[in-house]
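Figure 2 data, in text form.
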Amino acid sequence: MKSVALHNLGCKVNSYEFDVMQQMLQENGFQIVSFDERADVYVVNTCTVTNMADRKSRQMLHKAKKMNPQAVVVATGCYVQTGQEDLIEDLAVDLIIGNNKKAELADILLEYLKNNFAEQPLHARKTLDETTVIDINHTDEFEEVQLYKTAEHTRAYIKIQDGCNQFCSYCIIPYARGRVRSRKKEDVISEIQGLVNRGYQEVVLTGIHLSSYGVDFLAKTEGDYLAEKAVGASKKTLAFERGFLIDLIEAIQKLDGLHRIRLGSLEPRIITEDFVTRLAACSKVCPHFHLSLQSGSDDTLKRMNRYYSAAEFKEKVALLRTKYPYGAITTDVIVGFPGETEAEFLETKKYLEDIRFFEMHVFKFSKRKNTPAATMKQQVPDSVKQLRSDILLEMAQEYSKEFRNAFIGKEVEVLMEEEKTIDGIYYQIGHTPEYIKVAFPSVEKRTNQIVRGIVTDFLDTDYMLMN
């Protein structure tokens, strides 16, 4: 039995695929150990969303080889798709596996070990020409697997879609993930029912561009036009106007034993009167929505190749709040995008002051090779990016506390996920449907139980206290 240590970087889709890979390895007789332990094989599920993600991916690959120079170090994930040439030349990397082959990791690894080490212990460092690359080409079909357990014991990420057709001017992910591929409804339902039968109470629907779920279904029935022109397609033909995602959510709502449905990041254009009305009728859907803004300036949004205006985005937020007045709405913001003037930044700042999101994830623009934004003129200095980031992060902390403060004195339900000692007191830790992190003082283990109580105060900057 060979020992395998895995490390995951990046988004919720990567987290789902990480769980799939770990499951497959265990089924094929590998022993899973901590990434901080000496192992025979190390698998790093890489990310490439920013330059920092690339750097972290390389760091973890090098850490693995340092932990055990004789180990087989495997790179998979999005950085594999965009940084293949660098990884082939990297002495720390032995095996490179494309995104569309993750579900076959165990079989690939068994074959690799059989072919290379049948009569000898695991090898020393490889030379440049010995790095093995396994299919990094994109596929046109969703790579179906069935997940039955995850690293978490209460919440499961469910991948329903892969790929993106949007091609925002700053984003490398369409090149790393390929075109949109959607999962069949019956396969999603089957997987969730299996997880619910094993005790999972919450599922999180994830995808690279979740709102594009069904674009490829339309393409198969209406020709290639939509697949190639999804962004510019008329309003009546867009997949989210046809209701593929809400149809799926309504089907999941009917599953017995499931307590919560949480959604990943949504495209603002999917937030229509019909969508929100039908969504609000699904009692299991958590009032926690992520709409990625990126900028509050129309000029910046145009350079980003985002297909909505700031005013349209604000209308979508208002529409959500009509049905979810206490709902948690979160967003992403990029500061220092090429050409972002001080006036455009202040416009974004004022816009954020008006909306007051529960959480804001603030990113400094990162040039990604082979994207249009990388060669745009008027690149913003790092010092200016840092200053603007600091300003928005301070606002984010203020608005998050403001949102959570409104729950003091209210009864909430919390899905308990872990135990933790804080300042010498033992707490059960979990999240409300709005994804507010709550601490409940109790030595009785409550993991995977729904606990009701009254929010009394802030325990610290991260947790609210419930009695």
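Caption note: Confidence is low (pLDDT under 50) at residues 121-129, 224-228, 232-237.
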